[in-house]
Design goal:
Mean pLDDT of chain C: 89
Number of helices of chain C: 16
Radius of gyration of chain B: 18 Å
CATH superfamily of chain B: NADH:ubiquinone oxidoreductase Nqo5 subunit
Number of helices of chain B: 5
Low-confidence stretches of chain C: 1-8
Distance between the termini of chain C: 36 Å
Chains: A mainly alpha, B alpha+beta, C alpha+beta
Structural class of chain B: alpha+beta
Oligomer: heterotrimer
Helix content of chain C: 40-55%
Number of strands of chain B: 5
Largest sheet of chain B: 5 strands, mixed
Mean pLDDT of chain B: 83
């Protein structure tokens, strides 16, 4: 199942506001660097964490994308919420999120982190129906659990999202300008 | 088919339990149907005496659980043995809704967590428990989820709609 | 190991500090929070805090019909999903008196033993990584991927299976699955040589695991420990032999037992269990009978009223389903007795007096899966 990039719905300005001094190229370079070394936090909650670990292992190998799992939130860029979020666990996740230095992103992996998954039913008392109830989720990777390839696609989609407003938009603008000239 | 060793052990157990619990009902269970060789039925007290007998015979406490029936709770204690042929003893102990049963954690320390879970799910407070607090739900939760009066329990009408 | 009794009590109180091991920590197997009270590097007290993965399985069981609880079963312990699946189906079949065709029983055993191998591979390698060896982790996961390929061909899932149904299994296995399984077993037997070279004969591993985290038989009895943690302490108890179910009596296999009770003993028990599982699978493949794979069972079953306790052996220990039925299509109560619940609690007795590094090794060797504790 493809991952959904909800950011297409609202216009997010990823460029810094254009200033008198042109830092846009620097931002593009920084985004390119960020995208090629996204470091997630080892933070698996339940079943999806096994597929997240499998994605990091020899067959699917996230290391070739520059993705290394860091144990501490102080050194990570991405929080992959993999598993069902219980009410007891929400303060911990919020603390970990606040401990991560910016810029930081969230991937909601698995149906439980998207909307409660197979555990959401009327009368459920124990879980929160989705990570986006209290975290600004960037990418949703559906599945129960999603295949490691699905997580990889989610991470690649996140890479596109991080650089979208800058590099791609510039290229598109240049292409449009060239076509207009012809 | 019960072996000689099993039959002997069950006889001994039945005798010891009958001696320790004159007020209880001890019957042989149908292992093929219920998975238990011996069934003990008591009301209200006696769980510590059962535990003492089982510990003496080197049984381990597999689990403790509770079932919410209308009008009473039923505490279920399951004992089983590691050694030789399997022998499982189940004790059904009926208690009233607001009763405080005794803890068996002095005899089986493993019961500390099992009784905490029952308190967490049903609100049953155990007397003399060394550490009675919630275990699985958040500490500030104000509900006991496995009570039949909590939330939606039987969706029989809706389920019948789906099934018909 | 320090003898903390010789240290003055008052001076301990000034020096004791509390360390949170978890709930986010690379060495925990799930969301486990261990509150440690330390005096320097020596653990004085350990208090596991669980409940961060509580999803309400038992309450969900009272809100679903019998068939709808099947997907829940493999998510209780996601590493032995097929085994839990099989256990639930067998418990309900026993309650209703449903007969299962022999071919289905053999297929259940083959898939469950493959699941056991994949769970042990993950458990052992994660524990070894906690101690610091990263290379075997990669090797073990690679072997695990082969098992998952085989199981995915037949069941459709890699991790959370729902392959067993009341009365049998969902679909038949084919010749390619059988050939692939035999090839995998030959391959894994060859890989064991690598594992023994990398891990078992490694002097650092030996020094970190010999004599560490000893669980005595008396402690195990008081806490209800089961599984490899118990068999590493000298007790020969395995539900597949002591209380046989399915077609296990027809296979010739041993139960590995070690007497020392330390971390190394539990590791050796798990490695030997994988070899025994391979024996069982080969025997099952050799004697696989023909026939249907599912008996005719109504679409929605109506069990009689009554209660049943059914025990079986997962990769972590003895699991039990205590099911109370009131004769309707919805269960009245399902209680899942999970081995990790009792196995983890033993740490409050075993960890004090050890160094904190030994605490990590002991925690890894118990091989807990926290959603199994929390349900």
């Amino acid at each position: 199942m493809p991952s959904i990039d909800r950011s297409a719905d609202h216009s997010v300005e990823l460029k810094e506001s254009p200033a008198i001094l042109g830092f846009a190229a620097l931002q593009d370079l920084l985004n390119l660097a960020r995208v090629n070394s996204l470091w997630p936090m080892t933070f698996g909650i339940a079943c999806c964490s096994i597929e997240m670990m499998a994605a990091g292992m020899a067959r699917f190998d996230l290391d070739r994308f520059g993705i290394i799992f860091r144990s501490t939130p102080r050194q990570s860029d991405v929080m992959i919420v993999a598993g069902t979020i219980s009410h007891k666990f929400v303060p911990t996740i919020k603390t970990l999120w606040e401990q991560m230095p910016g810029p930081k992103w969230v991937i909601a992996m698995g149906n439980c982190a998207i909307s409660g998954g197979p555990f959401a039913y009327e009368g459920q008392y124990a879980i929160v129906n989705g990570a986006d109830k209290f975290l600004p989720v960037d990418i949703y990777v559906p599945g129960c659990p999603p295949r490691p390839e699905g997580l990889i696609q989610g991470l690649l989609q996140l890479q596109k999202k991080i650089t979208k407003g800058t590099i791609d938009a510039n290229r598109r603008a240049e292409k449009a300008a060239r076509r207009a000239k012809k | 088919m019960p072996t000689e060793g099993q039959k002997k052990l069950l006889e001994e157990l039945k005798n010891s339990l009958t001696r320790a619990l004159p007020e209880g009902r001890i019957t042989s269970g149908d292992y093929a149907r219920t998975g238990c060789h011996l069934e003990v039925r008591l009301s209200d007290v006696g769980m510590r005496r059962v535990a003492a007998v089982m510990k003496d015979k080197r049984f381990h406490l597999e689990t403790i659980t509770a079932v919410d029936f209308p009008g009473s709770f039923e505490l279920i204690y399951l004992y089983s043995t590691y050694y030789d042929d399997i022998c499982r003893v189940i004790a059904h102990i009926q208690i009233l809704k607001d009763a405080s049963p005794h803890t068996v954690s002095a005899i089986y320390p493993g019961a500390i967590w099992l009784e905490r879970e029952i308190y967490d799910f049903f609100g049953i407070r155990f007397l003399d428990h060394p550490d009675l607090r919630r275990i699985l739900n958040p500490d500030n939760a104000d509900y006991f989820p496995l009570l039949k009066t909590f939330g939606k329990t039987k969706l029989t009408e809706e389920i019948d709609d789906i099934l018909c | 190991m320090l003898n903390i009794k010789t240290i003055d009590d008052a001076s301990i109180n000034e020096r004791v500090y509390q360390l949170n091991l978890g709930p986010q920590h690379p060495s925990t197997h799930g969301v486990l929070h261990l509150l440690l009270k330390l005096d320097g590097e020596v653990v004085i007290a350990a208090d596991p805090i669980v409940g961060y993965s509580h999803r309400g399985h038992e309450k969900m069981a009272e809100n679903r019909i019998w068939e709808q609880f099947l997907p829940n079963t493999s998510r209780i312990d996601y590493l032995s999903g097929l085994i839990y699946n099989q256990g639930y189906c067998m418990a309900v079949e026993k309650l209703c008196g449903i007969e299962v065709p022999e071919r289905a029983e053999y297929i259940r055993v083959i898939t469950s033993e493959l699941n056991r191998i994949s769970s042990h591979l993950l458990g052992i390698m994660a524990f070894v990584m906690d101690i610091g060896a990263f290379t075997p982790f990669l090797y073990g996961w690679d072997d695990r991927e082969h098992v998952l390929d085989l199981l995915e061909r037949v069941t459709g899932s890699r991790l959370t299976y729902c392959y067993n149904r009341f009365g049998g299994v969902r679909n038949d296995i084919d010749q390619e699955f059988c050939d692939g399984t035999r090839r995998f077993i030959d391959r894994l037997r060859g890989r064991f040589k690598d594992y023994h070279n990398l891990i078992t004969e490694n002097i650092i591993f030996i020094k970190r695991t010999r004599g560490v985290g000893i669980i005595t038989e008396e402690t195990a009895l008081e806490f209800g420990v089961t599984g490899p943690s118990l068999r590493g302490s000298g007790v020969n108890y395995d539900v597949r032999k002591n209380e046989p179910y399915s077609v296990y009596p027809e296979f010739d296999f041993e139960i590995p037992v070690r007497k020392e009770g330390d971390v190394m003993a539990r590791y050796q028990v798990r490695m030997a269990e994988m070899e025994q599982s391979m024996n069982i699978i080969e025997q099952a493949l050799d004697n696989l009978p023909e026939g249907p794979v599912r008996s005719h069972v109504p679409r929605f079953i109506d069990p009689p009223a009554g209660d049943i306790y059914f025990a079986f052996e997962s990769a972590r220990g003895a699991v039990g389903y205590y099911i109370v039925s009131d004769g309707t299509r919805v269960p009245y109560r399902i209680k899942v007795r999970t081995p990790s619940f009792s196995n983890l609690f033993v740490l409050t007795r075993v960890l004090p007096g050890n160094f904190i590094a030994d605490a990590i090794a002991t925690l890894g060797s118990i091989d807990v899966v926290v959603p199994e504790i929390d349900r």
